[in-house]
Structures are given as C-alpha cells and as structure tokens.
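Convert to structure. Protein one:
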Amino acid sequence: MKLPKKILSSMLFALSFTSVIYTAVGHAKTLETPTQLSVSTAAVDNTPLTFMQISAQYMQNPKVVGEARLKVMFWNIYDAKLSAANGEWKKDTSFALSLTYLRDFDGEEIASRSVDEMRDIGYKDEVLLAKWFEQMRSVFPNVKEGENITGVMDENQHTHFYHEGELVGSIEDKSFGQSFFGIWLNEKTSEPKMRKQLLGLL
C-alpha cells in the first residue's frame, strides 16, 4: 500500500537520527579523552553498550529525563529516550538521545528530510545544509525494526553516534549538533508534544 505523502514525510522525519553519521573511512575523528578511549576499547571487544552505559561515558550520574513514542496515525515509528546528568537537560551540556525504531526504513530521502527539519527550525545557511546533506547521503544506513541509534552531545558540543551500542562516528561541528538535536529538542520542533515528553514536562 502506498502511503500518503504527508504520512511518508512524518515517517521519514523519524529516521533523521541516523542521517549524519561519519564513518571511520576518513570522516570519524579519533577520540582522545580517557573516557572516550574506554568506549573505543569496549567497541573493539565487540561488547555493545546499553543506553545508560553510553551516557555514563560522557556525563556524571546520568538519569533519564523523559521518554516518548512517535506515532503517526496507526503507525508506530520509534521510541525515544533522553538522558542527562542528574536527569536535568541543558542544551549546552552533555546529553544523550536514544531512538529505538519500530519499523524498517531506508532511502536517500531521509537525508533530504533531515535537512528540511533543520531548515524549519531556523537554520538557513544553505551552503552548510548542503554540506550536511552530502555527508548524510553518503553514509545513511538502512534501519531495521528493533534497531537502536543513540546520539550524544559531549561537553565540547561534539556529536557522537552509536548503532546497536557500538560507536560508529563523530562530528565535531558544534553548529551541526545544535541543529541536529534541535529536530527533537528545539522549541520550533515539528513534534512539540514529543519535545515536552522528552524534557519531562508532560
């Protein structure tokens, strides 16, 4: 059954979390801090990290701030969870956002939709958006039902991505991190109810 364009657009929005991963092929930055090195060691040992274990690599006393499910009509899209130090989220400090997908997704259109969402919340630098689009398009993976993607904003506002508990890439562009996580946490998000749930306001 072919989905209506509006529904498909909302579903594509759900996948934006996977869109901007830098792979190790020339893009991922080498992690240098002792804490981050311990994460790399775990990855080498092929030991997937849980959401809270990932969070603990970047913040002290991580606690869940809020949880939400994105549902479009009768389609469940993903379950989201936000963690921060002491359970108190601040956009300029470390936090982690987890998405567990409830459907299979794939396609280059996800990258385009992600850029659209960033543009809608106020990012208008088309040169930069085009750069991010090319990065997203070149690395965007297929996502299967039940898979998890976790994004982390560290204390330096660098962004790190984990797929199924394993570190897959990092982006040090501070403006990217604020724009990307703003898809869910900015006041201009297209999903204001979800934002309130993630921030523990509902």
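Protein two, convert as well:
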Amino acid sequence: MMATTHALAGLAVASVTLLVAPDQAPVAMAAAAFGGLFPDLDLYAGHRRTLHYPVYYPLAAAGAFASLAVVGTVATLALAWFLLGAALHSVMDAFGGGLELRPWEGTSDRAVYDHFNERWLAPRRWIRYDGAPEDVLLAGTLAVPAVVAGPAPLDGIALGLVVVSMGWALARKSVATAAERLVPLLPPRLVSHLPERFTEGTA
C-alpha cells in the first residue's frame, strides 16, 4: 500500500479522539499519521523488515495506551498514537502486494517480516499493489474523517495526501518501467545502495 494510505489510516483511527477528547485530537491525529509513515523510512534499508514489526508494534501500542491511563501526559499520548499508527502500517502491509518492482505481477512471496516468528508473511493482495485503484479508494475513504471534521491543518493535509495518492497511482507503472531502464545504466556503487527489487533481473 502507499505510504499516504498508511498515514491516512493513522489519521482515521485517531479521529475517534474528536468525539471523546477533542482537545487531544490534533496531537493524537498528527502522531498517528507520523506513526503510519514511520515504518517506510526503511525503504532503502531492508524494506518491510528493518522498521516493520507486525507483532511488536501492537504490543508496544497496547502498553503505551495502558500507561496513558496512568500517566496522562502529552508525550505519552503522542507515543501511544504513534505506535498504533506504526502497528496499523505493519499489519496492513500483510494485506497488500509483495516486494517486487512490479507487484501487480504477483511474483513475490514476501509482504512484511514477522520478527516474532522469524519469517516473512506472504502477501494476501487484497490491495494488489501500492497505487492500485483499490489503494486510492481506500486512501480516499480513510481521509474522510480528517477532511470533514479534522482540525486545521490536518484536514488540508489529509486532502493533500489523497491528491498525492492519485498522482502516484497514475505514475506507478511508468516508474517501474523507468527504473528497469535506468538501473542498468547506473554506476555499480550506486546500484549497491538500491533496494533489491530494483536490481532483480538486471545482473
């Protein structure tokens, strides 16, 4: 799934604070959105393994929310929602496509790494690939709470993420084709720093 979809998932789940604790909503929603983006910072360093924890993030989030009930500080609030956003991201990736450059071809059996069981979870492909039409639809749906009721500037950010999602969806397959053509032309020292999916089949 797209990074924007994950950020919007964080915004959507944290929007519950608009109903139960509206004064905490801006912090909760921003933290959850950043948590939703955070795991993808491993894009060039063991993607979906280095910062993706489909078991440990949910456990850490549960612990953080338990602590929040006792220590109701802004920092604890932000940490709890950040971890929940990261947990959602890591779990959601198992329902998307694999790690290959052309995930719509369904050739990879790796979706996200489960450190607890020390194995890769297979992609279920409910969302076939990042930028698929159903991915854009999911992103748009998840944006609704923030766009309709979210505090500024989060409402505008949510709308902007939907626009970025649509742009990526339009460019997604062309990017894969461009990468296949350009990677063989790069110096070996640069190629060695690219994610494995960019170099498969180019040797």
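The CA atoms of residues 112 and 121 lie 5 Å apart. The mean pLDDT is 94.
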